[in-house]
Every structure is written in C-alpha cells, then in structure tokens.
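Two proteins were folded this term; both appear here.
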Amino acid sequence: MSNRQTPVVFTGRAGEYFGIWIVNLLLSIVTLGIYSAWAKVRRNKYFYHNTLIDGVGFDYHASPIAILKGRIIAVVLFVLYQVLAGFSPIAAVVLLIAFLLALPWIVVRGLTFNARNSSHRGLRFDFDGSYLQAALAFIVYPVLVVITLGLALPFVAQRVNQFAFNHHKFGLSRFQMQALVKDFYMVYLKLIGVILAISLAIYFGISSLASTNKHETVSINQQQILQTHTATADIGFIKVANTAEMPIEEYSNEAYLAEEQSTADYLKDLSPEDRAEFEAQIQDAESKAGESVKKENPIEKMFGPYAAMLGPMIYAIFFGLALFYMAMIFLITAYIKSRITNIIWNSTSLEHISFSSNQRMRDLAWLYFSNTIILFLTLGLATPWAQIRMARYRAERLALIGETDWDKFVGEKKEMSRAMGEEIAEMFDVDLSFG
C-alpha cells in the first residue's frame, strides 16, 4: 500500500464569500425565510467547490425546492405542536413522543439526502443506514448515558460515529471506521483527570486564601478590642478640676481593670456637681471612642491608600473570571473535538485509501476564542471570515494516504455508480436535515 499523502486544500476567501453571505442573509430576511433554501444551496456549493483533492473540488447538487419542502414540513409540525400544547397538553405529549420515534427516520433521511446530493469527480456519495440502526444509535444508546450517569457517553459517541461513517459510500465503495470504544474512553478519562486536577488546585488555593484572610480578620478584631479598651482606660485620666493631664499609653486588660478601680476611688472625693460633670465627660469620651472603632473600615486599614482601587479591581476580577470560564469552555470543546476527529479519521479507510488527521487542541481553542471576540466586536458581520477560517483549518489538517488514481479506484464501476447516484437523488427529493 502506497504511503503517498494527498492534502485536502481549501481555497475559499473571506472577502469573496462575504458577498454570498450578505445577499443570502438579506434575501432570507426579506422573504421571511423562504430564500433560506436557496441560501443553503449557494453556501454549500461555495464550500464544496473550494474544497479540493488533487486539484478537483466537490460538488453539491441539491435542489432548493427539495430543501424548502423539508423546511415547510418542519414549520408545520412546529406550529401544530404549539397549537396542541395550548389546547391539549396530552395531544402535545403524544406528538412529542411521535417526534422522538420519528427522529431516527429524520436522521437517516437527512444523511441520505446530503450524501446523495454530494459528488467528487462525477461520482455521488451515498448513505444506506436503516431506521433500526439509527434508532439504536440515537434513542437506545443515549438512554444508557442517563442510566449510567454519563459513564456510557464515550461508548455512545463511538457507536454514533460508527453508524454515520460505516454507512457512507463513495460510488460503490464503503467507508470503514475501525476506532475502538477504548479510544473514546481514553479521551474522556484524560479530560476528567485534567478537570479534577484544576478543580483541586483552585479549591486548595481558595482554602489557603480564606485561611489567611481569617487570621488577618482575627488580628484586626483583636487590635480593635485593644484600641477600645485603651480608649476607655484613657478616660480614667480625665481630671475635672485642676487635674494634670497624664500621658496616653497602650493598656492591656489588667491595666484597664486597675485603672477602673483607681477611677472609682477618685470619684469618692468629688462633689456631686464635679461627679456629674465627670460622668458626662466619660459618656462623651466613650461615645467618641465607640464611633471611632465603628467607623473604622477594615478594608481601608488593610489596603491603606490602595483601598480606592478595589472598586475597579472587583470589576476586573469578574471580567477575568468570565474570560477564564469562556476559555475553559473553549479548551474543553477544542480538546474533545480535535481528539475525536483525529481518532475517527485516522481509523477510517475507503478501500485502499486511508486518512490522516492532526487537529490540535490549542489551534481549535484559539480559533473558537478569536472568532467569538471578532463576532462580538463586529456584531456578527465577521461570520464569513470565521466560517472560512474554520473550513481552511479543517482542510489543512486532513490528508489522504495512498494512491489516488481515481479511474483505477472505481474502474468499470464508475458509469454504473454515476447513473445509480443520479437516479436515486432524483427520487429522494425532500431534505429533512437540520443544517
């Protein structure tokens, strides 16, 4: 088997595609969504034509009318469900159950429609999955995820992708995906391990910070108590009549009690008028001392002149946390997407041709993050640029391994495959896919 690599090349340009995208958007709005069927055909044709293997692009043959039929059916069913939900909840539940039962059929119809309306070098693709196989992949297996509290998710992901790939054909040749369940489990187990490590690091970091703050708070409270005792003890040095002013010192609890006793002895020698004036001064001093301690801001005491910066810092912290959360979502999504994509393509073959995929998590994470920021700043107008970037990256990271002599690849089956594909595509004229 030849080890010759044939790269997949994408030649689309953002400026060129923007013209198609903006016209599609405006006409879809003006026609209340009717033009969206034609928009889908124009969009798919552009991306198909600009995805090249050995210098030859793909082609998309779907009729906009077929797509419009499928969307009309979807709208009618949605409106019917809303009406029934308003008048008869039981009927709405019955319709919802009917939709779930019809989901495998919808998936098969959608995959078949898209495959049979796609071609390369005049040969159509095909999909021959059955309803029962789709029901197993999209109804029975997902139930296992719920029953096992998510433990069966890698198994279900492997089965769903196996169903989708192994029932696709190019002409009369079938794709074969041989990725194992354990390969999918390794991806998810590594992800869970990294998430647990990060979570433990954050937990111990927050616990350490909280412990430090607790000690600092206790220290501040102790200082406030000591200052209160000191302020109260200082009152004992007030002399009402011709009493010399005494120096102010820091007192401990014992010193405060001793001073309180000396104050009581001092009061015995005062006249009623002096005693009343003395007590008034004590009450006034205690009030001022209490207000001083009460008004003291521990944040200002802790941070000093930097306390005024805490307001903007709080907003910066929240903004940083939002960016961190968004980055984690992008990293997790990029990790799963890149690893699963590589596993699938690296284990897939088409007769004597195999595939090589080397997507990287950091590349996809950067694409997700930068695309989101640009879309936000441009209010969505950079959508064509983001879509072109993603399509180019996926193409650059995929290659065919083996001899790509297409005439030798299909041999005498070529004419029969072409005729069969065109005939079946005409019969299968309703698009029930979600894309």
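Next, the second protein.
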Amino acid sequence: MKDPGKLLRLFRELNLLSSSKRGYTVHELAEKVGVSYRTVYRDLRIFEETGFELIQNELSKRFRLSRAEELSENIAFKREEAEALHEALVGLPEGPLRQILLEKVQALSGSAQQVGLLHRQSMSANFHLLAQAIRDKRQVVLLDYRSASSHQISNRLVEPFAFSDQYSTVQCLEVSSRTTKFFKIERIGLVRIEGSPWQLEYLHESRKQDAFGMTLHKPKVVRFKMGLLSSNLLREEYPAAAMHLHKENDGSVRFEGEVGGYDGVGRFVLGLIDDIEPLGPAEFIDYLRQKATKLI
C-alpha cells in the first residue's frame, strides 16, 4: 500500500474493532479515527475483501470482528510493550522518521484518540501562528509539510498572506519557486515564524479555490446527479459545495458549479459512482471514463 496514512488508519480501525465486545457504528468509527463516514464504509469493504469477517448487529448497526480476541493478540502491542517502544522513540531526533514510527506504535496500541487530540491541538497552534505571520507580514517555514502531490515530507519557506474561505488551507508565496500555492493546514507539522519580513509581496497573487480544493485558474462547469447518501457526504466533506446543490423532482440532488479541474471533483464522483450520475460536460464524462478504465 503506497499511502502510509491509509495503512495506519486501517490498523487503527482493526484495533478498535478487535478490542471492543460491543463493536462500533460507522459514525462512531469515523469520529474516533477522524475521517468521513464514506471512508469508513470503504475501509470496512477492504476488510471484507481481504478475508476479515465482519458481524453487524441488526438493531444497533454496530460492527465487530469475528474472532476478535485472537486477532487483537496478533496485531496489537500490549500496554507495557507500547510504553517501552514509545519511550525509546521519543529519544530519537525530531523529524519525519520519528513521527511515522510514533504514529505506528500508537496506531497498534489503541491510542488513536490521543493521537487525534494532539493533531487537533497542533493544527490550532499552527493556525494561530500563520494568522500572526499574515498580520505581521513575516516569512515562515512550514516544517515537515506532507505533500499529497509529490508524496514527500519537506520544509517550505513561504510568505503566507490569506486563508481559504473554509480556513482549511493557507495561501502562500513559496520563496524557492516564487509561485503562489495553497497549503493544507492539517498537513503542516509545525509552523516556525522567521525573522525576515515579506520580501516578495509584489508577487502575492490571491486566487480562488473550487469546492474540492482545486485552484480556479480556468474554471469549468460540471454537472452530476446524486442520491441522498452522496449528497449528504458532499455537504459534510466539502461544505463549500452546498451553494451549488439543487433538488430535483425525482428526489435526487444535482450539483452544478465551477471547478478548477477534474481531479478534485473526479475523485469524489468515482468514489461513489454507484450513487452518482455524471451529466456533463462531455469532457468531464470522458475524464471519468478514462480514470475508471485504469482502475480495472
């Protein structure tokens, strides 16, 4: 599996399901792991496809794993084992390797809730530091930024100058490339304010993003119909998309709005293609068809 974050999430979910006699609803799992309901449904499907036997209570709708005690003994660290490993890892120098190893131990020792709390606290601190840097017009270093496009963790010297409408990303001028980029706050390890003021303010170019996080450089209008499940998930995961939703006479919901590219909206549509009907334009439908062909 190429995505280490996804693998850690699956381990956390397995650990939760194997250590609970009552089991968990999809909503409870989503809240504990910090992902959407749709992601949990997908993960449960992965478990079934890879041989894990899931049992769901018809009344409570809670899921649990068959032979949970046996599985728990095989995949999870005992408390004393986890504490010993955690203590050893804390002594390592700061950096991506230390963080990844800590997350793996925590994922397999049932402490995902604490990990989530620390993550939210870190995000809050980073947000306030970015807001201070914007106000004071200072350069900052985004330490251990996890890039989804390059799959690398690196430090970025930037000049932050605006937040997105949903405050999930910060718009910055990257000093090395001298280009404006959006950085997701949740992917920033730490923010360090530098002593230098902005040096390239004349290059700061405020840009807009579409509802799916893509830059609106050359906007295109896309249309698709959704069932109740997809429309609810769209509102939860992409709140900015709500303004583009229209109720249809047949009970479905239609999305019609501008996007900066097909990658963002395409990932959403392909992930729920059984509940979504693409309507246009033809270019968008061709894009989806090509992507779907690669998945076969």
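Residues 125-203 form a domain with the SH3 type barrels. fold (CATH 2.30.30). The longest helix spans residues 112-136. These notes refer to the second protein only.
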